Amino acid sequence: MLTSCEDDVLELTPFNALSEETAFTTPERINLAVVGIYDAAQSGFFAGGAVRGYPFGAAHVEQGDNRGEDMLNLEAFYAITYESTYNAASANNLYHFETLYGVINQANVVIEGLQNAVASNVITAEVAQQYEAEARFLRALSHHELLVHFARPYNHTPDASHLGVPYRTMAVNSPARVEEASQAGRNTVKESYDLLLQDLDFAEENLPDTRSNKISRATQGAAIALKTRVLLHKRDWAGVITEGRKLVPESAPFVSPIGGYSLTASPEGPFENNSSNSESIFSFENTANDNASVNGSLGQMYNAGTGGRALVAISPIIWNAAFWPEDDARRDITVSTARAIYTSKYRDAATQSDWSPIVRYAEVMLNVAEAIARTEGNGQALELLNAVRGRSTDQLYTDLSGDALVQAIINERRVEFLAEGIRWKDIHRLAVEGTFGPQGIPAKVASANLKFTDYVAASGEVRAGAVSVGAIPYDDYRFIWPIPVTETNANPTLAAQQNPGY
């Protein structure tokens, strides 16, 4: 329901699968229309109409990981992303762009339909506001994913006046709007973030704090959690703390007053029972009947267990990191072969039903910890860091403050969110600063040079011959992806605003 043709990148083909008059004539159909936005986000199209989990059913994890250094591409599947050899026609980045805007347009069509449904007394204004809040949450999530791949980070210019992405709030569902949208250009990064945060503020105000399917449908807590991430990218440390305090108390035990979120007892908890646990704030649901397929699902791509294709492994770069203790329980969420070590966070290779994680309570805690460390030097930051770290190891940090504490938090994120697609987001937001991470795309281990003996837990060293995919500096054009050629061919304004170098 509410699908458009796939021929145009920004989903500019007029909405034609079902008339809007029909789609919004009953409460039941309206609910299905809202659910359809989630479906578009979980299982958008790929080349030839294939389903590979674009954008959020799996691809955001796989693309985010392969842009960083902590996961290791072993085959040709993600080589273009891993080795940064993409161009404006490369399938992975092209379909990521297309399907994200497909989600955005579907959200906008629903928002407009809700307004008409209220005017026709089909649903109440209160019900419509909650549905609109879900749509705006998904719209914000999609725009932020676009910003971290297709635009430079917020602090690239002092006032964030550089080009972001087109922030689309208009439903493209008529020939006139197709024409209007086909001439529209990119918002600045500042404009994009301002609009994004407006969407999340509306979502927070109008979403329930809990619901029966509270992980797979947006809640108030999910909107707040995503705001802490967005504000971290904006480097609004005070904003991160203000929003984070809504979910993270000022003292242990750390249980959110909204939604009841808390760390699971084991680091495996969010993945053992990904449909019902205390830590997962928002994830996209996959099932045996609706998933990213054998060519895209997380269980297939990442798992070396029975039935898994094992195309992406853990890199010796992170496995050998001295800041990851050898006795850390997170090292047990793995499986080894004669070739490499793999994550077992995603364990259902057979039916591909592993849910795709978006945000966990652990991330909110570390977001707040970093913001406190950057503004107060220590405060509660060390306690929050050790709360996340301490469920996996007894080797806790003591007497850290300032830059050393911030670095420890960044390091902890690399371990805690390994194989969840977050590493690229951190590389992106930290690149200009250059203090706590690589100033660009980091050097990586090449699969052709990998030996199993390269894995030496917590050794602090990686064999020099293994790291042969060269680093790319921040000022290189390849740090961000190009606007797809399918879009620049159709939109002269965007053609003139193509990312330099492409």
UniProtKB/TrEMBL annotation:
Keywords: Cell outer membrane, Membrane, Signal. SUPFAM superfamilies: TPR-like. Its main location: membrane. CDD domains: SusD. Residues 343-502 form the RagB/SusD domain. GO terms for cellular component: cell outer membrane. It is found in: Cell outer membrane. Residues 79-232 form the SusD-like N-terminal domain. It comes from the Bacteria. InterPro entries: SusD-like_N (IPR033985), SusD_RagB_dom (IPR012944), TPR-like_helical_dom_sf (IPR011990). Belongs to the SusD family. This is RagB/SusD family nutrient uptake outer membrane protein.
